[in-house]
UniProtKB/TrEMBL annotation:
Species whose genome carries this gene: Uliginosibacterium paludis
Protein name: Transcriptional regulator
Highest taxon of source: Bacteria
Length: 132
């Protein structure tokens, strides 16, 4: 099973749901920081592996990106939970797509390692929306 190829989502993407998903992902990102005894994050900087997989589970589409950042494409539209994160703002080309990057075994392992948490986030988000 590919962790980046097209997948149908649980919900149809729209701006209101995206805003709720972004708020939810930030709360979960803060919880993860607390679990790791890190300072609370200011934004979703560094969360793109989790965020893009979360969006793919919830809204479907594919994951695109490169060594610095990954994001989603749903029905041809670029979707990025971290679009306004500080790290994304500092990148010269945050939305460059290097498909072969996702073929690197270490990257596949990093994505796979995120999946149990992403699935818990997805289930909790759907419950929060009254859909699960």
């Amino acid at each position: 099973m590919s962790l980046i190829d097209h997948q149908d989502g649980l919900l149809v993407y729209d701006y209101a749901r995206f805003a709720r998903a972004k708020d939810f992902a930030f709360r979960m990102w803060c919880e993860l920081a607390k679990e790791r005894s890190l300072l609370p994050p200011e934004d979703l900087s560094g969360a793109c592996k989790y965020g893009s997989q979360f969006v793919r589970q919830v809204f479907g589409g594919v994951i695109e990106g490169h060594f610095e950042h990954q994001y989603n494409r749903i029905d041809g539209r670029l979707i990025d939970l971290g679009h306004d994160a500080r790290d994304v703002g500092r990148m010269r080309q945050p939305y460059q797509h290097e498909a072969t990057y996702f073929d690197i075994p270490e990257q596949q392992a990093r994505l796979q390692a995120c999946m149990p948490r992403v699935m818990r986030w997805t289930e909790a988000f759907m419950r929060e929306l009254g859909q699960g």
